[in-house]
């Protein structure tokens, strides 16, 4: 695309797909101020990249997931590299902010599952987020820049890991 992007068109698309930004922000930033900062950075980077968006090559949602996840993972790496911050597992107060479709009172198993997801490394967290969004493997591969086979393998391993952790948590709670 060689022409200047239309800011109104971009803003309309971003508003229409803001749920993507909120899901990524809530998965990668745990404090309100960090979430606001990350959402702003995603918006800024999306705008900077919008001139290169080609609707013939990808859906806007696919492109936005890619931008949002790249920004979130980059910010996380910067934060961990500069300040040595530790990843904080998702807890109940995080679950309450993870999206409108989240049940108001999630059962204990779902809270435990999200806590285990929060402990995954950034790429695996992105993979499971997209998997839970029912994205096809081809789209996940496109968003994350890995092969479809790699997506399938990694998701299988993540599911196996999470299943083991959930089984262990259930046994510990019994």
UniProtKB/TrEMBL annotation:
InterPro entries: RNA_pol_sigma-70-like, RNA_pol_sigma-70_dom, RNA_pol_sigma70_r2, RNA_pol_sigma70_r4_t2, RNA_pol_sigma_r2, RNA_pol_sigma_r3/r4-like, WH-like_DNA-bd_sf. Keywords: Sigma factor, Transcription, Transcription regulation. The keyword Transcription applies. Residues 13-79 form the RNA polymerase sigma-70 region domain. Pfam families: Sigma70_r2, Sigma70_r4_2. Residues 113-162 form the RNA polymerase sigma factor 70 region 4 type domain. It comes from the Bacteria. The keyword Transcription applies. Belongs to the sigma-70 factor family. ECF subfamily. PANTHER family: RNA POLYMERASE ECF-TYPE SIGMA FACTO, RNA POLYMERASE ECF-TYPE SIGMA FACTOR. This is Sigma-70 family RNA polymerase sigma factor. It comes from Dyella lipolytica.
